[in-house]
Predict the 3D structure of the following.
Amino acid sequence: MTPHRSSISSSDTRRYLRTLVWTLAALVIGLVSITAIGYRMGWVEAANHEIYRYQRAKIDAPAPIDVAFVGDSSLGNAIDARLFAELTGRPTANLALNGSYGAGGSYNMVRKLIAAKHPHLIVVMQSIDSMRRDNAFPGFYFSAEPSDLLAMPPMQILELYFSWKTAKRIVQQVAKSGFSPKVEVFDGDYISQAAYPIDKPVKQVLAENPLQPSMVAAAQMHYLHKIATTCAAARITCVFASGPIYQDYCTQTRGYLDALGSAVDATGLKRIAGTPLCVDDAEIGNSIDHVRPDLKQEYTRRYYALLRDVVASLGT
Amino acid sequence: MLFNSFPFIFAFLPITLIGYELLRRYGPPRATHLWLIVMSCVFYAYWNAAFLALLFVSIVVNFAIGRQLQRRAADGVPSRPLLVVGLVWNLALLGYFKYANFFIDNIDAAFGAHIEFAHIVLPIGISFFTFQKVAFLVDSYSNEVERHDFVDFCLFVMFFPQLIAGPIVHFKEVIPQFRSAVRPESVDRYALGITVFAIGLAKKVIIADTFAVDASAVYDAAAHGTLPAFGDAWLGTVAYALQIYFDFSGYSDMAIGLAWMFGIRLPINFASPYKSQSIAEFWQRWHITLSRFLRDYLYIPLGGNRRGHARQRINLMLTMLLGGLWHGAAWTFVLWGALHGAMLVVHRAWEQSAFGARHALQPMIARTATLVCVVLAWVPFRAADFATTMALYRGLFGLNGFGAVHELLDKASNSALLAVAGLVAVWILPNTYQWLGAAAPGLPTPGYPATYPSEPPTRLQWRADRRHALAFAVLMFACFVKLNDASPFIYFQF
């Protein structure tokens, strides 16, 4: 065997190693610091603490909740809780977060809701588009209680903070809007839609975001399964309904919808037939899965029609 | 566990290194060996703990058979039946886990038998550690194995840097290193080990994964019925040729760098294969440890070149067909092996002919022709099936049309330029071990192209100075930020 030949001295190597390690450590710490500060200050949508605090307050309030909706902005823009309460005769709350929280955020809302109120029905409503996103864990992390931290995989937390994409988004956000995070305006149920229609043609959004059957995110299903298990343990009826979506998604992503349906069924959550509701060009709001604000009541009625049998089967 | 993942880089590796150093300084003799075995078990079990039992049983059986073979060989009465038992045991395991489904599917297809058979999960790394143990048994039979105990043997098979995808090491290459009490200074080991690991990581996550995008787009579309036009077919195929080179040579560099952090030199697996001037030379530069295994344990036992030209050609063909099948249980891999076998036969015939002896090709022409042949042969290796293979070949020869001019120009502006840059890089740049020069920690294989430069270091050569340290820190950081999009190594599936 050829003996190892070394042409470098140990002092050179020591200096080399020291420089390499310290520079790398500085870069890593720098990146983690940027993302951590960005998250803390609410400069990243995933850490949109305002919407979380707003919805969390509904759970902490003394008013009873018998029917609750949890999910993303497709829910926030589609369900008017007051109208739904009138239609069902049951106190209702819309606890929608946004797409960045994913099913992980919904799971935490369900846990907190069950601990505080013990409702009869929880409707999980997520947009089909958000169920492809790989953000279920960040959503869970940013809506978890400090006591949950110990049970979280440290590597996943590290991945969350060691993210170039997040750091880039933070820098862009700060460059665009300064150091003050955007202040949301709430309409009683959810964030008011500032402007619509959507700023980019919906067909273009669809072309840029084709949904393939393989794209259903396993992490989202993981948290839906946890919701189903939690509900079953608490003997609470929990169902899944897809939020409204632009009509071309209904027609052009059949394979994805079938795959999503099968995956949701496998989680143990009962799926509400007839969802997603398909939204045409005239009804679309400021996103592919937001209906126009003036149609919120109309869509609440349409979802009520789909949920009527489930509501009727609930005890008092 | 992937080398290019957060859990490996930020948890497994630091824990393993800290434990190793502590035990080396304060632990009893050989505690480091046990530690490396335990951590290698953790490394393997992270993927699927159930197969750890299979690996362990296989180790026990091979150790027992090897021990008997060595005793008989030392007594001057080598036992061929025992060797056969050992080989059958290893090949039966490989056959069951890797080829049973393939075999049943072919019977079903040929006879419409519809045999009910469970889908068998392939234990990761089985192709590699099976070959390693086969070589061990043959070497034991030939009395070429040094004295060792069970711990040595476990370490030989399980040492995590080479457990999953090689390099395929020989017992005599690594065990004397493990048994030696002398280790290079830890600062030397870490400086070079991290450097080689960083080069491999960059090859994988920055280069290979970038080319994977174009290769997958073309090959996946073809698998779904799209007929690739001339430009697309060439772009996808060249991109794949670059992807697989940077992916696997990157993996091998990472394995070598990791092993060196523990003071162990693993054999070099790649020596600028795309610079080869013949297909025979390509196989001396590509996946060197597999190539030498096939040569020593298949081609030479078949008779090699000792039984005339015709027999030599048959041996070459058989060796490459089996080499193809080793890569994967699919006819496309057999076709890939057949193409390489045929190219080796043609090359040998050319060399042996009077015309070939008088008319040696210009080096540049020979290098270009070899590269084109190798790139064309990658098509069945990447394609999902024969239909996709044929769709790609039709595209490569212009039979699916040439596409619109504006499409060609669009491609020329980005992906194609990247592919051309990649080709130029693999043609003119030094490989990892040439660039690292005399300090490189890889083990050259005797008889294969030299991988260390004979000339004095150039200005471009790596040095342990501050400039290089800063550059490598930035490179590693760039790799780390891409870890969120980590993809597995191509050779993990084999």
Q: What stands out?
A: The interface with chain A takes residues 6-7, 10-11, 173, 176, 184-185, 187-188, 190-192, 194, 265, 437-439, 441, 443-444, 457, 463-466, 468-470, 472-474, 476-477, 480-484 of chain B (CB under 8 Å). Residues 233 and 392 of chain B are 6 Å apart (CA to CA). The mean pLDDT of chain B is 87.
